[in-house]
Design a protein that fits this description.
Blueprint (H helix, E strand, L loop, with lengths): L1 H35 L3 E12 L4 E7 L4 E8 L2 E8 L4 E5 L15 E4 L5 E4 L3 E5 L5 E6 L13 E2 L13 E3 L15 H4 L1 E7 L4 E7 L7 H7 L5 E6 L4 E6 L4 E6 L4 E7 L27 E11 L5 E11 L10 E2 L5 E6 L9 E2 L4 E7 L3 E6 L8 E11 L1
Parallel strand pairs: 6-10
Antiparallel strand pairs: 1-25, 2-3, 3-4, 4-5, 6-7, 7-8, 8-9, 11-12, 12-13, 14-15, 15-16, 16-17, 18-19, 19-20, 19-21, 21-22, 23-24, 24-25
């Protein structure tokens, strides 16, 4: 009996020691993670007004000429705009038409080229203009799906696989546009998030299998076409940074070698979690009193200086787990967004608060962000833009 009592006592002591070691390890891990995150914040730098009855949406910036590129929707259609740093509109013109320098389908994307020319994308053509909108390049591309963007133009993403060549490679579906098709029951197992068109080779290929993302098939069946790729490309390094609208992983692709070269875990609102993010499924998500699912939704990715990346995500998106029709039912507040920073290896910040009524339009040199102030309660005859710089203590 004495030996048995000593055995039980020794066993209890051993269990206590193991428990203490596990707790100490967890505390040290938590403390280490806390120390890994810098104290970042947004600091207002300056603002400017664009005086126009039609709202102007700026989506790119060319530092050499200090010009912004964007679009505005007027009675004549969607116009390409160039704006200087004071907010003065240099040029605004609708290039839709049947002329050789025009495009016949709807304008989807715009971006500056490395030399300050203007790329324009429709669902059939890629065009390049100079800053006076004289045509320089125009070619047709083929895609398995055709996308029409009726909202203001979004930023065009492309890379050069060979820096000595003019030809570009680009995604045919703009960031935020899903390739999910109603009735395609095998999309989870066979679908790809992106289709890339290679101008030099004259054909496209698909990348980023849906089944490799951190979502379950039943969650995809609820979100349907709301599950879409969110990405940007780095033209200089020929890399693609990609996540999904509902996802907790950023995947880095080297498009020259067509390989995955890294993954970044996303900790929405909980950067000190000990365990890495897991698959997103309906069973693991919290819900509202009406039994709608609650989840963050990734909105945009931004390229910053020195290899930094910013992810903007919408907080508290509600999803009906039992939609009554084939279209997903989702409620989201675009003004309830947060910002997370990453380097090329990991998340490096807690959530950054985005200014009230501020919509991020694009990133600027110097780790700055261009915000557009949007007031849904009143119409104004100008667009207010504010530049914020990402700071650290």
């Amino acid at each position: 009996m004495l030996k048995e009592g000593l055995f039980h006592s020794s066993l209890m002591i051993l269990l206590m020691i193991v428990t203490m070691c596990i707790s100490l390890f967890s505390c040290q891990k938590d403390k280490s993670l806390l120390n890994d995150f810098g104290s970042y914040y947004l600091e207002k730098e300056k603002e400017f007004l664009i005086h126009s009855l039609s709202s102007v949406d700026l989506i790119d910036y060319y530092p050499e000429d200090r010009l912004y590129l964007g679009s505005t929707i007027t009675h004549s259609g969607k116009e390409i705009c160039l704006v200087d740093e004071s907010g003065r509109i240099i040029l605004s013109r609708n290039m839709k038409g049947e002329g050789p320098e025009q495009y016949i389908s709807n304008l989807s994307c715009l971006a500056f080229s490395e030399k300050g020319n203007i790329w324009a994308m429709t669902n059939r053509h890629i065009l390049q203009y100079d800053q006076n909108l004289n045509i320089l390049v125009k070619f047709t591309y083929e895609s398995s799906l055709m996308f029409n963007i009726y909202t203001p133009a979004i930023k065009f993403s492309y890379i050069h696989k060979d820096t000595n060549q003019f030809e570009i490679t680009f995604p045919t579906n703009p960031s935020g546009s899903s390739r999910h098709q109603v009735g395609k029951s095998q999309y989870y197992n066979t679908g790809k998030l992106l289709e890339l068109y290679d101008q030099k080779k004259g054909y496209s290929n698909e990348i980023a299998p849906v089944s490799n993302r951190r979502i379950t098939e039943d969650f995809l069946s609820i979100t349907k076409s709301f599950y879409a790729p969110i990405y940007f490309t780095d033209a200089k390094s020929a890399k693609l940074f990609l996540t999904g609208t509902f996802d907790n992983k950023i995947t880095i692709y080297d498009l020259k070698s067509n390989t995955v070269v890294g993954n970044l875990d996303i900790y929405h609102g909980d950067p000190n979690a000990i365990l890495p993010p897991t698959l997103i499924s309906p069973q693991k998500l919290p819900s509202t009193s009406e039994n709608w699912l609650l989840t963050p939704k990734n909105h945009k990715l931004y390229k910053l200086d020195n290899g930094l990346i910013a992810l903007e995500y919408i907080v508290g998106v509600s999803i009906n787990p039992n939609p009554k029709n084939v279209v997903a039912e989702i409620l989201q507040d675009f003004f309830h967004s947060k910002l997370i920073l990453f380097d090329q290896n990991k998340q490096i910040s807690h959530d950054l608060t985005i200014p009230e009524n501020g919509v991020i339009m694009t990133s600027l040199p110097g780790n700055r962000l261009l915000f557009k102030e949007v007031n849904p309660e009143r119409e104004e005859d100008f667009s207010r833009y504010i530049i914020f710089k990402i700071m650290t203590e």
